[in-house]
Amino acid sequence: MSQGKFITVEGQDGAGKSTNVEVVKGKLTQQGISFIHTREPGGTEFGEKVRELLLNSGDEQLGDQAELLLIFAARAQHLKQVIQPAIARGDWVLCDRFTDATYAYQGAGRGLEHSTIETLENLIQGELRPDLTLLLDLPVEVGESRAGQRSKPDRFELQKLEFKQRVRDCYLARAALEPDRIKIVDASQSLEEVESSIVSAIDEFVVSSK
Ligand SMILES: Nc1ncnc2c1ncn2[C@@H]1O[C@H](COP(=O)(O)OP(=O)(O)O)[C@@H](O)[C@H]1O
Ligand SMILES: [Mg+2]
Q1: What is the DSSP string of the chain?
Q2: What is the pLDDT of residues 94-118, one digit of tens each?
Q3: Residue 148's CATH number
Q4: Cβ(39) to ligand 1 under 6 A?
């Protein structure tokens, strides 16, 4: 039995990740691929508690380093309990956000060192990296307005536009460095157009994986 593939969906809040993950799921199902769908931060009971702490930490100001370590603690648990076993048994893993988000939010956004994140990435993940990342990209103002219409803003959605711009720029810079893995989808388009870009990217990836 060959190993499953690891697909992540990235992009700023309001880009359409949750909406379009459904398109990816439909495509994988149609192809007869067995997969699990999960998310970060979260994906395990422990991880979901961490998610709640990260998104709404209450009145106490959570420090950047505490935030980073919480994210990797949740990720370590997620990998061990869910992601690695799935890949090993041949299931594909579809994950809403992963370590690219850590480089974008905690690195570019908060200003933590790239090398610190890289050290933790290597420690926690070993050699494991996503096989395909769909980066839903759009102007920060558009993402902000979409996310604002959806729900009450969380700790990250409350950040100023400059923070969100650094997040977007970091995602795009990573995509430029790893064009084979990270596929940029223009998420400012209509849902139908975004959907069709995603379908093409998944089709191409499935064909190349066979
Ligand atoms: N291409 C699109 N055009 C218009 N609205 C969109 C589009 N994609 C998503 N939305 C809407 O924007 C909001 C945020 O989408 P969501 O999928 O929750 O984003 P994310 O998971 O990336 O934060 C939702 O209300 C969704 O219906
Ligand atoms: Mg979402």
Answers
A1: -PPPPEEEEE-STTSSHHHHHHHHHHHHHHTT--EEEEESS-SSHHHHHHHHHHH--TTS---HHHHHHHHHHHHHHHIIIIIHHHHHTT-EEEEES-HHHIIIIIIIIT---HHHHHHHHHHHHTT---SEEEEEE--HHHHHHHHHHHS---TTTTS-HHHHHHHHHHHHHHHHH-TTTEEEEETTS-HHHHHHHHHHHHHHHHHHH-
A2: 999 999 999 999 999 999 999 999 9
A3: 3.40.50.300
A4: no
